# Entry
Amino acid sequence: IIFTSMPPPGTLGRLLVETRQQPQLELTEAVSRRVPLAGAELEAFRAKEAEERAAAEERARTEREETEEIDTEEVDEGARELATHDLMDSGAAEAGGRTFKRQTRLFPMFPCLEERTPWDAYGEIIDRKDFMEVQTQPEKPVIVPDVMAVDESVRVETEFPTKVIVSTELITRRCEVVLVDLEGRVDAASQIKFIEQVKPRKIILVHGSSENTQMLRRQLLSLKVADDRNYSEEEIIAPDVNELVNVTSESRIYQVRLKDSLMNMLQFSSTEDHQIAWVDATMHMHDTSALVSATNLPSLDRPETLPNHPPVLIGRVRLDLFKPVLAEANIHAEFFGGELICNDEVVVKRDGPRITLEGPICDTYYAVRDLLYRQYAIV
# Structure
């Protein structure tokens, strides 16, 4: 027996895979078998089947009688309508004692009964049999044995009523069991190695048994994050089935109120689609005993003394985009070995996250530096 994937727990396949190293294995399994009915069970089934057949025939007979009554009423109604338009001689149609012969019922000269078309809420009722193509096949001669002609009540059955019985049997494994893993899944060691290289902020463990999930979670708690610290309990989540998990990265957001005195002194700088400013303020809590809500937010006010802070450059300058800026300022710039040469005097190059400006003190140096500062938002 070859398994291409690990069977689910609690199944016979899982038991065979887990015990495949044992030379012999005896299993006690419930085996279902279908056997024909006999004796009292067969007689009870026959009686029940006869009752159902009789009830079906009775329902069919009742439906036929109701249909015939409806058709008779429609015919009588049509005859009464046509009787008012008799085309025969009025003298001959009169009933009386003028002759010794018995007066028979007189019908219209040209009887015409209109077929009524059945309708429902959606229109005329369509009989699908009128549109079916009946394929006729040549009838084959059927030879009926003489035994069937002796007693017509005798019925030859091709299908016998059966029932399912469940029995417990002892099964001995006499074959070799091999597990060939073709699922393409990774083991715990490969997952841990991958997480060590990626260093995600949050980890959610799903699709696994509770024992394996908790074991992997304990191993991940000992790993180091990007800032050389271990994962916390909140950063590695192992939710249960149908459990709602909040994976929002911006979970620590604080709201404060800015007073007008503080807003008037801020100097905003533009960077892409944002306005950025440096804020030095004093926070005031109005009611420290109450919970923070939309009506009880802390406020930021202008401090009495403004501390000095070094300027901060916000943004990222790309040298390939900085070259057209220099061209607009009539500064000739060319790339050489990944560095930007400006007017053959100043060199602009990138040193990791920083940009270095090298060259003699001249007009080109100050012009390039001024254009470079304009690419950042300085706060």
Remarks:
- The longest strand covers residues 25-36.
- The first helix runs from residue 12 to 18.
